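In full, the data.
>
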Amino acid sequence: MYRRDVLRAIGAGLGAACCPGYAQESYAVYQPSPRLLLSEDRLRLLRREHERRTERWRQLELLIQGEARFPEPAFALALAHLATGDESLARRAFDALQPNTSPNQVAMVSDWCGDVLSAPQRATLNQRLTSTVNAGLPADASPARVRDLTLAAVTVADDLPEASARALGWVHQQWWPRITSAIEAGRIPVPHREALPFVEVIYSFQRGLQLDLRESAVVFFREYPIWHLLRHYPPSFGGGENDYRIPAFSGNGEPDIDDATLSRAAELAMVALDSNAQESQYLQGWLLNPRFRLRGALGAPYEYFWCNPYQPSLSYFYLPLYQHLPASNSLLARSSWEENATWLGMVDGAMQLFTEEGIRLVEAGRNTRLLPVGPSSIVMEGKDSAPGGVSRVTAPECERLFWLNLRGNTRYEVEIDGEEMAEFVTSKGGVLELDLSNRGGGGVALRPATASASANSA
């Protein structure tokens, strides 16, 4: 354990014993400004990309020079100042702030541009951030609101250390346990569309406080980047500036390009969070295709800020075409990495099947049926399957078989043609996963294990 971690633990204990708030020593921010969502390496990269006039920089510059209508103008202009040192961009970023501008943009202007703004301008920013830090949030606050609070607290840490520590302590000790509890309860803790602010909260604690929130759910966060990747429909969507990968959505209607933009931004941020992890390197390989490089007014600033094309990557073509997260009741599968692939996944509590004909919901019918999806086969247990009765399917040659709609946390006897009967336990969500690699196709039968059989097995 690092010496600072020891001091943090001691400070947390003293704070809990001595005062009703959160200990300042526990949540001090020692990283110098500019520090929001930054490391020294990433700051150097941003400035080097400007000097080299890379395509990502030139795209952002073109939009600024053309006075594009940025959805987040203060962020875009403050970022351009951070990269170039151009003081006029800092002043434009301040002028772009409106009464309803989100606190995260106010924090960026304050942290990234504060050294060139006037004293009255800095005072205005500080007043707005102080209000954010002191306002407090409900326990069920969204990731976006918690991100706003976190960035504001990190920004004012030098001037208002006690208020900053209280806010960051609330995030760590009150809000984050709700995230951990959701994971332990078998849920993905935040909606897909809120992944970016979620990752920004984690990044801020990791870089600014040297506190890795992911340590409370290591297995989940190791799998999270691949889950995010697989939760996109196979075909891309052609946009005016670039193509988009569309995250799965519920309900009717057309794909939301803003959701697709922020989904890619979240993935770029995940890679920046932990570029050495193998999962991040597969995700990096997914992101490097130039077709999907964000060039629009919403996406170009995120592309420039988060993307690092020099980080190591692995081809996502080597990833399995399925992912089952038993603890999160999540199953995602696709038949190939081609754009005409079949895709199946749980979206907002409903199973979807995506084919060339479009999206349809897959519900349990009267009888058991089987859906081949590339190297995996999905069995939907029928509603009329008699309790204690035997269900049987003939599976094609596949790597994995996932039997859905069974009873959760229950032992089943499974008989695969040519093999002895064996017992398996379903996940909490009622999914039984079988490894059929190198076995060829054939019949698979199952029935709930009898009490005597389970006892003998034990």
About this structure: Confidence is low (pLDDT under 50) at residues 1-25, 452-458. Residues 212-319 form one domain. The radius of gyration is 25 Å.
